[in-house]
Write a structure and sequence with these properties.
The chain is mainly β. The protein is 2% helix and 31% strand. The protein is globular and about 65 Å long.
Length: 587
C-alpha cells in the first residue's frame, strides 16, 4: 500500500508484523490450513493493492509465503527463504532500552529490522517501486542471465537480476534517541531514497521518499531530483546551521551523491554525457526537501564525507569525487563563527586526473591540520582509483589498459584552482619504494600531494575499498584479476592490502611502532574483493584499544584475513585532537 507520511504502513506489501508462531507474508480471507498466515495489521488496502499491481494475485506472493499446517500432534513452521544480501551493509542502532536493532536490505524485496539479542525479525518493508518485479521471484521466470548461459536456448530469454534495497543505509540519531531515522537506498534496485522513523523500532513510520520511481525514465520524479541515478551513495547525516547565523540551532541534513548510471558499465571510453548521477544533493533530513545541489562532471557514486575544522562537531566542509577522476570541496562556512546560509553553499572542483579514464568510486579518508605559520587549514585526502564493477579478467579493458593509482592530495581550503593529480612536478611520484628518509609532503614543501601507481604486482590492479587514516599511515585494499590456474574455472583474483605512511608512502608493515621503513602491502587469503578497512576504539579487558578490521596484517604475516581484527600500532591510547604544524626552510 501507499501510506501517507507519518502514518504506520499496514499492508501485506508494506510493513508486515508477524504474529508468534506464524511469521510470513501472505493474504487474508482463506483457511489457515490452505493459505499463509497474515501479519496482524492488514486492512482492505491490501486487496486493492493486488488489483493495482500487474501479475500479483492474492495469496501468490510465493517468496514470502509461509503455510501454517496444523497437525494432530504438533505445529511446525516451514523454513524461510531469505534473499541475498549483496551490497547492503547491516546497520546497528542502539536504543536507550538496551535493545539493539539491525536494519538491512535483501534482494527478496524487503528492508528488515531484526532484534540483535533474539535474532527475531521485527518487521519487513517492501517499497511500492518493487511490486511489479516481485512475481518473478516466485515464478522463477525469466531466469537470471549469466555469461555462460545461451539466451537463445531458453524461453523466455534470461534477463538481468532484479535488485531491491541493495544499497547502504544512513542513520540519524540525536543525543537522547528521541529521534532515530534510517535512510535506505537501492543501488541497482532503483533511484529512490527512503526515510523511515524508527524511534520506536517496533512501530516504524514513513517520513518521506525522494527520487524517481522508475529506473529507465523520469516519470513522477521528485521535483528537482530528475538528475538522480541509481542510489549507491550512503545518505550521510550531519547537523548544519542552514540559516547562516552562528547562534542558531543546527538541524540535521542528508548529503548524498547523485549515484550510478549503467553507461558506466561499458567501455571506459564510452560517452556518458547525458547520464544520470552527475550531481550532489543536500537534503533536509526531516522532510526530504532539497536544500542545495551541485553538478559534477561524472557520476558521484561514493559517499559524501564531512570534516570539522573549528572543533564544534559541526562540519565546515564536505568532499566528494566522481567517476571522471575529479574531487570537489563543498563549503558550508565556519559553523562556529561564520556559517553560510544554504543558498550560499558552494562547490569547487579542486583536483582531477588527466586523460586517464580513472574512476573514483570510494570516498576519501580525511585528515585536517592547521599551519600556524600561514594561518591556514589544510585537509589531506587519501583515495584510489578503480572500477569495482569490472573486476574480472574478461571485463578489464586489456586492449587499452587503465593504470590505476592511489593518491594523497593536500587541499589548501582557500584555493579555488584545480590541481592536476597526475602532474609529477606538483605531485610526488612515490611509485618506487620509499623510506623513512624520503621527503615528506607537508604544506609549504612545494608539493600538493603524492601518487603511487598500482602496477607493481601486475596489470589490472585497482582500488576496491575506501581508505582509512590512523596513527600517521593510510590503509586501503585492491583487487587484481589474474589468469586462471589449471582446474580453476573462476579465480577470485588477488586481494591486496596496503599500509603506507601518509606523508611519504613508506611501508609500515612489520616495523611497529615505527611508521616507516617496512613493507607496503600484503595479500588477503581467498582473494576476491576485500572489505573496506575500519578503525575504532574498543574496550578490551577494561583498556581502550584502537582496533582495525579489514586492515592488512601490520605485523607482516604472510597471509591476512579480510575480517580479522588487530591493534593498529601498540601505542598507549591517545586523545583525539586537531594537529597543528609549522613548516620553515627547505624540506
Amino acid at each position: 500500500m501507499h501510506s501517507r507520511r507519518g502514518q504506520p504502513l499496514r499492508s501485506v506489501l508494506g510493513f508486515a508484523r508477524w504474529p508468534e508462531g506464524g511469521e510470513g507474508l501472505g493474504c487474508r480471507g482463506h483457511s489457515q490450513r490452505e493459505q499463509p498466515w497474515l501479519g496482524t495489521d492488514v486492512d482492505a488496502q491490501s486487496d486493492a493493492l493486488h488489483q493495482r499491481v500487474p501479475h500479483v494475485q492474492r495469496c501468490k506472493l510465493g517468496y514470502g509465503r509461509r503455510r501454517r499446517r496444523f497437525h494432530q500432534r504438533a505445529q511446525r513452521r516451514s523454513p524461510t527463504v531469505h534473499g541475498d544480501v549483496v551490497h547492503s551493509r547491516p546497520t546497528a542502532v542502539n536504543y536507550p532500552s538496551a535493545q539493539t536493532v539491525i536494519y538491512y536490505g535483501a534482494n527478496d524485496g524487503t528492508l528488515r529490522a531484526v532484534d540483535s539479542a533474539a535474532g527475531k525479525e521485527l518487521w519487513a518493508y517492501i517499497a511500492p517501486e518493487f511490486y511489479a518485479t516481485l512475481p518473478r521471484l516466485r515464478q522463477d521466470s525469466p531466469l537470471v542471465s549469466y555469461s555462460f548461459v545461451n539466451p537463445l536456448s531458453i524461453s523466455p530469454p534470461p534477463i538481468p537480476k532484479n535488485y531491491y534495497f541493495d544499497g547502504s543505509i544512513g542513520v540519524y540519531q540525536n543525543s537522547d534517541s528521541s529521534k532515530v531515522w534510517v535512510y535506505p537506498t537501492m543501488r541497482r534496485g532503483g533511484r529512490m531514497i527512503y526515510a523511515l522513523d524508527v524511534t520506536t523500532p517496533s512501530a516504524p513510520t514513513l517520513k518521506w521518499k525522494v527520487g524517481c520511481p522508475d529506473l529507465t525514465d523520469d516519470t513522477n520524479c521528485t521535483t528537482g531530483l530528475t538528475a538522480i541515478g541509481q542510489t549507491w551513495s550512503t545518505p550521510n547525516v550531519a547537523t548544519l546551521k542552514t540559516g547562516g547565523t552562528a547562534a542558531e540551532t543546527p538541524r540535521p541534513i542528508v548529503a548524498v551523491g547523485g549515484g550510478y548510471d549503467n553507461c558506466e558499465d561499458g567501455s571506459p571510453n564510452a560517452a556518458c554525457s547525458d547520464a544520470k548521477g552527475s550531481i550532489v544533493y543536500i537534503l533536509d533530513a526531516a522532510d526530504g526537501s532539497k536544500l542545495a545541489s551541485f553538478t559534477t562532471a561524472g557520476r558521484v557514486v561514493m559517499d559524501v564525507v564531512f570534516v570539522d575544522l573549528d572543533g564544534d562537531r559541526i562540519p565546515d566542509l564536505a568532499y566528494a569525487a566522481d567517476t571522471r577522476g575529479n574531487i570537489y570541496r563543498i563549503n558550508f562556512g565556519y559553523s562556529k563563527s561564520a556559517p553560510l546560509p544554504a543558498a550560499s553553499w558552494t562547490s569547487t572542483l579542486i583536483a582531477g586526473t588527466t586523460g586517464s579514464n580513472r574512476k573514483f568510486l570510494y570516498p576519501p579518508a580525511l585528515y585536517p591540520g592547521y599551519d600556524s605559520g600561514t594561518g591556514k587549514f589544510y585537509v589531506y585526502l587519501a583515495l584510489g582509483t578503480g572500477d569495482r564493477e569490472q573486476p574480472l579478467l574478461t571485463q578489464y579493458p586489456y586492449a587499452t589498459p587503465i593504470l590505476n593509482r592511489f593518491y594523497v592530495f593536500v587541499d589548501d581550503i582557500t584555493s579555488t584552482a584545480k590541481a592536476d593529480l597526475d602532474d609529477s612536478t606538483a605531485m610526488s611520484d612515490f611509485t618506487a619504494a620509499t623510506s623513512c628518509n624520503t621527503s615528506r609532503v607537508l604544506p609549504g614543501s612545494g608539493k600538493s600531494g603524492w601518487f603511487m601507481d598500482l602496477n607493481a604486482y601486475g596489470r589490472g590492479e585497482q582500488t576496491v575499498t575506501s581508505a582509512v587514516i590512523v596513527n600517521g599511515f593510510v590503509a586501503f585494499s585492491t583487487n587484481r584479476a589474474v589468469p586462471p590456474n589449471a582446474n580453476v574455472c573462476a579465480p577470485a583474483g588477488e586481494a591486496r592490502g596496503y599500509a603506507v605512511n601518509l606523508l611519504n608512502a613508506s611501508g609500515v608493515i612489520g616495523v611497529q611502532p615505527n611508521s616507516c621503513g617496512g613493507d607496503r602491502s600484503g595479500t588477503f587469503a581467498g582473494g576476491g574483493l576485500p572489505p573496506s578497512p575500519v578503525v575504532s576504539n574498543v574496550t578490551v579487558n577494561g583498556k581502550v584499544e584502537m582496533i582495525g578490521i579489514g586492515v592488512i596484517d601490520l605485523n607482516g604475516a604472510p597471509i591476512s584475513v579480510g575480517v580479522q581484527s588487530q591493534k593498529v600500532f601498540s601505542l598507549p591510547p591517545q586523545p583525539l585532537k586537531r594537529v597543528y604544524w609549522r613548516q620553515e626552510g627547505d624540506n
